[in-house]
C-alpha cells in the first residue's frame, strides 16, 4: 500500500494505514474497455465466453423444481469454496490479517483449490499488486478502464509491462515459505481440477444417487461461473458503485450487494484503508460478513490467532478526516438490517 514509486518490496505483514494511499501512475493512453493495450489471450477469451454462454443457457433452462437437492449441494459447495477465497487466499495469505494453525491452513487450501481459480502464489501476488497500486496502470484490474475490464476483461489480455514489473517487486517471501502453499501450488495442475470438478460431482452421484448430467451442469456450469463472477464483482462493482465512508479520495467503495454475495468482501473502501483488519469491515453483521463470524469461531477453537483489528478511535479519526460522511448511516444499517448481529 505505500505511496512509493520505487519497486521496493512491501512486507504485507507490516502494512500501516498511513501507507495505503496508492501511488499515482498516470494513464498514458485513455483506452476504452474494448481497446486492448496488450495482446489478446484468445484461449482465455474463447474459454470464458463459451463457459458463460453455456452457463446462461443452464441458468435459464435448469429444472429447478426437480433437482432441489442438487441446488442445496451447489449452494453448500459454493459457500465452502468461496470461504477458501475470502478467509484463505484473501484475508490469510494475501493480507496476513490473522494467523492460522496448520490444520486450518490445509482446510483453507483445500477449499481454495476447489474454486478452479489460480494458484495461491499468483492470486496473492495479483492482489498485493492491486492494493499497492490501486486503480493505476500497475493495477491488474484498474477500474479506470471501466466495468467490464475490471470485472473480466483483464483476464482476456496479456498483463501490461507495468503490472508485471511491479508484481515482480512484491515481497512474496511469506508465501514461498508456507509449506501448505508450497505443496498445493506445486501440485496445482492435479489438485485443482480434481477438487474443483471431480470431487463435487462424484460425491452426490456416487453416494447420493443423483443424476450425473445434472450434477455436472450444477457444478461446472452453474457453481463454477457463479463463484468466478462473485470473485470478480469485488474488482468491478466494489470499485465503481457505493459509498466512500473511510476515504473519498480512492475508488474502492462500500457495496452492500457485494458484501452479501461474497460473505463480507464488499466493505471495500474500509478494506483498502485497513487491509490488515481480519473482519474487513468496521461493523458487526452476520448476513453481510459471515466470514468474520467463522473466523471468530475458529479463534475460539484455537485454530486462529493474532487477529488484527483497527481500533474504533483510529477508524473514527480517519473516517472524519477522509470519509464522505456516510459512515454513521452504514452503522445504522448494519444494526437494523441484521437481528443476529454477533
Ligand atoms: Zn480493491
Ligand atoms: Zn484485499
UniProtKB/TrEMBL annotation:
Residues 71-275 form the Fatty acid desaturase domain. The lineage of its organism: Eukaryota, Metazoa, Ecdysozoa, Arthropoda, Hexapoda. Its main location: membrane. The keyword Phosphoprotein does not apply. Signal peptide: none annotated. GO terms for cellular component: endoplasmic reticulum membrane. One of its GO terms (biological process) is unsaturated fatty acid biosynthetic process. It comes from the Eukaryota. Belongs to the fatty acid desaturase type 1 family. It is found in: Membrane. It is a multi-pass membrane protein. Pfam families: FA_desaturase. Its cofactor is Fe(2+). The chain crosses the membrane at residues 40-60, 72-94, 106-124, 187-207, 227-246. It comes from Microctonus hyperodae (Parasitoid wasp). This is Fatty acid desaturase domain-containing protein. GO terms for molecular function: iron ion binding; stearoyl-CoA 9-desaturase activity. The histidine box domains are involved in binding the catalytic metal ions. Keywords: Fatty acid biosynthesis, Fatty acid metabolism, Iron, Lipid biosynthesis, Lipid metabolism, Membrane, Oxidoreductase, Transmembrane, Transmembrane helix. InterPro entries: Acyl-CoA_DS, FA_desaturase_dom.
Amino acid at each position: 500500500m505505500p505511496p512509493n514509486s520505487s519497486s521496493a518490496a512491501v512486507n504485507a505483514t507490516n502494512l500501516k494505514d498511513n501507507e495505503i494511499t496508492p501511488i499515482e501512475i498516470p494513464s498514458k493512453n485513455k483506452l476504452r474497455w474494448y481497446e486492448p493495450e496488450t495482446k489478446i489471450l484468445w484461449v482465455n477469451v474463447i474459454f470464458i465466453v463459451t463457459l458463460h454462454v453455456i452457463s446462461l443457457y443452464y441458468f435459464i433452462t435448469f429444472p429447478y423444481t426437480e433437482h432441489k437437492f442438487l441446488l442445496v449441494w451447489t449452494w453448500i459447495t459454493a459457500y465452502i469454496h468461496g470461504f477458501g477465497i475470502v478467509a484463505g487466499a484473501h484475508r490469510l495469505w494475501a493480507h496476513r490479517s490473522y494467523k492460522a494453525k496448520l490444520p486450518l491452513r490445509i482446510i483453507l487450501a483445500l477449499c481454495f483449490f476447489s474454486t478452479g481459480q489460480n494458484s495461491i502464489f499468483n492470486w496473492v501476488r495479483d492482489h498485493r499488486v492491486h492494493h499497492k497500486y490501486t486503480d493505476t496502470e500497475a493495477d491488474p484490474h484498474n477500474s479506470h478502464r471501466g466495468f467490464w475490464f475490471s470485472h473480466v476483461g483483464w483476464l482476456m489480455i496479456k498483463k501490461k509491462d507495468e503490472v508485471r514489473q511491479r508484481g515482480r517487486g512484491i515481497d512474496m517471501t511469506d508465501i514461498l515459505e508456507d509449506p501448505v502453499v508450497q505443496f498445493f501450488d506445486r501440485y496445482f495442475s492435479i489438485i485443482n481440477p480434481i477438487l474443483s470438478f471431480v470431487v463435487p460431482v462424484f460425491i452426490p452421484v456416487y453416494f447420493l444417487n443423483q443424476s450425473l448430467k445434472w450434477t455436472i451442469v450444477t457444478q461446472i456450469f452453474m457453481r463454477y461461473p457463479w463463484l468466478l463472477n462473485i470473485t470478480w464483482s469485488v474488482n468491478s462493482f466494489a470499485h465503481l458503485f457505493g459509498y466512500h465512508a473511510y476515504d473519498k479520495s480512492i475508488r474502492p467503495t462500500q457495496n452492500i450487494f457485494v458484501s452479501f454475495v461474497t460473505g463480507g468482501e464488499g466493505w471495500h473502501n474500509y478494506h483498502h484503508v485497513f487491509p490488515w483488519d481480519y473482519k474487513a469491515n468496521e461493523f458487526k453483521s452476520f448476513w453481510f460478513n459471515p466470514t468474520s463470524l467463522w473466523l471468530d469461531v475458529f479463534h475460539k477453537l484455537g485454530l486462529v490467532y493474532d487477529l488484527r483489528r483497527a481500533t474504533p478511535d483510529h477508524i473514527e479519526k480517519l473516517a472524519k478526516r477522509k470519509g464522505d460522511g456516510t459512515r454513521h448511516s452504514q452503522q445504522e444499517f448494519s444494526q437494523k438490517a441484521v437481528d443476529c448481529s454477533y
